[in-house]
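My main concern about presentation is that the manuscript never shows what a single data entry looks like. In essence, backbone conformation is discretised, so a fold becomes a row of integers matching the chain in length. An entry of this sort, consisting of the sequence and the corresponding backbone structure tokens, reads as follows:
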Amino acid sequence: MMTDPTGIRFSQLKDSWEERSFHYDFTTKQNNRHDAVFRCYGSLPDGTLYGAYIFPPVDPDPSATYIVIIGKDDKLVTCTPAEYLDWDLPDHWPLAVAASPSGKTIVWIMEKELRTWHKDPEEDRFINSSDYMENRLGKRQVKDSVMNADGFLEILCENGEKLGYLADADIVLSPRQDGWIPAEGKEYSNLVPWNKGVPQKKDCMCALPDCFILMIRKEDGWEEYAGCGVRRVCFEEGLERIEGEVLAENQELESVVIPASVRYVEFGAFRGCTGLKELVIEGDPMRIADWDREAFLDCPCEEYYLQLRRDAEEHNSKIR
């Protein structure tokens, strides 16, 4: 019997499937229809079904486990290997298969490895991907996972470590005391859609859950964050300068934490962030005297910031 996978551990979903009939063609020739039964784990928003199937051997290839999508006419729409094709391994089923609530990503655990399958945003169809998660997770063995309603996947590793994954945004996360940040490394902190080479952060950010905290690092492309839609931001410790208009006109931004290492904030860095409710400035507040006067222009905290700046200027003038 199928169960809504939202909020349930994959280990508890291993028997949450139903046998469904489907058919596919071995070749493009007529009268080559093959009727079969697959394990259906759920449905996508467009009404198609997703699940797993072990395709029988077709000379010279042996049988292999695939993740499948079945259309409303019970015909195979598309499929992808459930694991690396190793002909020496016996056929077996995934621990569980789940889809993100948006239906844009399908994830499963196979032999203690987490696998993903994404929908192409332009072609509106799932396409085969060789971008498996093994290397992105540092070759950690995955013990269990939970898909949450906002598309955030919690990952429990065999060594007890916890990681996160934003399924539709394709971002691997590390835990932080008050949320989750992109894991260290340029490969892990990639915020563009999984199959695109150009930044599309605005679309990506709008789908991020409340637990996500964007950590901006000094090697990042600063110009790409303006108006991105992220709600919580922190900056990498050791960063000394926050560039101008880096998060300008981001009306969804609610919280900013500036580390003690930041010595200067440039003009309009947070200009027009009308939803900014929390501003945390770590370290010596006297250095604020050197920050640009209009760094928080047209923000709710603008007057608070200007008062801090005036106090710092007055304090510094007394000790000179």
About this structure: The first helix runs from residue 201 to 205. The mean pLDDT is 83. Residues 84 and 130 are 9 Å apart (CA to CA).
